[in-house]
Specification:
five-stranded mixed sheet, 405 residues, elongated, two-stranded antiparallel ribbon, alpha/beta, hydrolase
Length: 405
């Protein structure tokens, strides 16, 4: 070193300083927990900047979260203990209110997890974990409250609602399946590939006269038919073995004839004594059958209306869900639970009555029932014919039914 000139010593000192500075930068980078942009979450994140403004405006709050502030706070109080996390020495946890806001915004808008990540200043994986954990908590804490197995008296109440609002007696629900589009699961082959040429899981739902979900089954392969899904579902097995507390039968209004309580489905479902489907064929030569099909389809459409309401409220159903099938099941199930929860606590139930007051319900002699062959049981044909004759009798007719056949 003694033989080096002053210029050479200065150059060595500069190089050593630069090397030390590079080491400091690398060391500092390794110690960063999150991206610098996410570190601004506490003063630039959407929850901090926007939520406090929404709280002062009920209408904007409802548009943003698809529920009222009362329902939001009620929901938060119910699941808070399930989504609460502990602070650590290195960082503060995300609050339950923040987590619920992220989840509801994801369900309400259908935005991608990446979009939510940037707007809330949270990591992509953090948002995904928050959504799944919160959905799981919603199902755990609310499922038994908003979607319990109906009692015998509740089934009778549901049947009375269908008769009062949709003019179909002894009906305890409308049944249908909805394909929920998901990203193609790895190594799944054609299991989830449906007739619409998309990958999906199926939401099978039983709905009451006010568009509430009575029972649902989520997660069946998209390639399966609605009828096959019902047979293999827990709901279908409980109905088949009569383990759903459904009353055996009841007298048809205005008559002395008894009929079983039934569920209404479309052509995809089999004809059962407890599950009715329309008469097959688009051009029926029998007016009585056409009238039955009209009355059947008019009532059954409540389940399609319920799916429409669910999709309109939670726009996540308008896009492909980017999650594995197990987590997609949780997202769909939690959305259905929230659908019922919001209808209960926001009191926004609405339905079309379309009933002519004063329809006569006099005693009548129903026509002789003719049995038919086929794969369905004779009892199932008997039940459908019984309702067909009722809708063509003075006790069961409505003034407008001939206009739609």
């Amino acid at each position: 070193m003694a033989n080096l000139s002053n210029e050479e010593l200065l150059m060595i000192a500069v190089l050593l300083d630069e090397e030390e500075e590079e080491l400091k930068i690398k060391r500092r980078t390794r110690n960063v927990w999150v991206h610098p942009a996410w570190q601004k979450r506490t003063f630039e994140g959407e929850f901090v900047t926007l939520y406090k403004e929404l709280v002062d405006d009920e209408s904007k709050f409802y548009q943003y979260f698809r529920m009222t502030m009362y329902s939001f706070n009620k929901l938060l109080n119910t699941i808070e203990s399930e989504i609460q996390r502990q602070d650590t020495r290195f960082r503060k946890c995300i609050s339950p209110r923040h987590r619920l806001a992220v989840t509801l915004r994801y369900l309400a808008t259908g935005d991608s997890l990446k979009t939510i990540s940037f707007s809330y200043r949270l990591g992509h994986s953090t948002v995904y974990t928050i959504v799944i954990d919160t959905c799981r908590a919603i199902i755990k804490k609310l499922m038994s409250e908003v979607m319990p197995v109906p009692t015998e008296n509740k089934w009778r109440e549901i049947a009375e609602d269908f008769w009062a609002h949709w003019n179909f007696p002894n009906c305890i629900g409308a049944l249908d399946g909805k394909h929920i589009v998901i990203q193609a699961p790895p190594n799944s082959g054609s299991l989830y590939f449906n007739y619409k040429k998309t990958f999906s899981i199926v939401l099978l739902a039983l709905v009451d006269a006010h568009y509430n979900f009575i029972a649902i089954d989520v997660g069946a392969y998209g390639k399966n038919s609605d009828g096959g899904i019902l047979i293999n579902s827990k709901l279908g097995k409980m109905l088949e073995t009569n383990n759903m507390n459904v009353p055996s039968s009841s007298t048809l209004p205005g008559t002395s004839y008894t009929a079983p309580f039934v569920i209404l489905g479309d052509e995809a479902f089999p004809l059962k004594s407890y599950l009715l489907r329309p008469y097959p064929g688009k051009q029926l030569d029998c007016e009585k059958k056409r009238i039955y099909n009209y009355r059947h389809c008019r009532t059954r459409r409540v389940v399609e209306n319920a799916f429409g309401i669910l999709t309109q409220k939670f726009r996540i159903f308008n896009r492909r869900i980017q999650a594995n099938p197990e987590n997609a099941d949780l997202i769909v199930l939690a959305s259905c639970v929230l659908h019922n929860f919001i209808k209960i606590y926001d009191c926004k139930s609405s339905y079309s009555r379309n009933v002519t007051e004063g329809t006569p319900l006099n005693e009548t002699t129903l026509n002789t029932i003719q049995f038919q062959g086929g794969n369905a049981s004779q009892e199932a044909f008997h039940v459908r014919e019984l309702f067909t004759d009722f809708f063509n009798s003075p006790s069961g007719t409505v003034s407008w039914q001939n206009e739609y056949i």
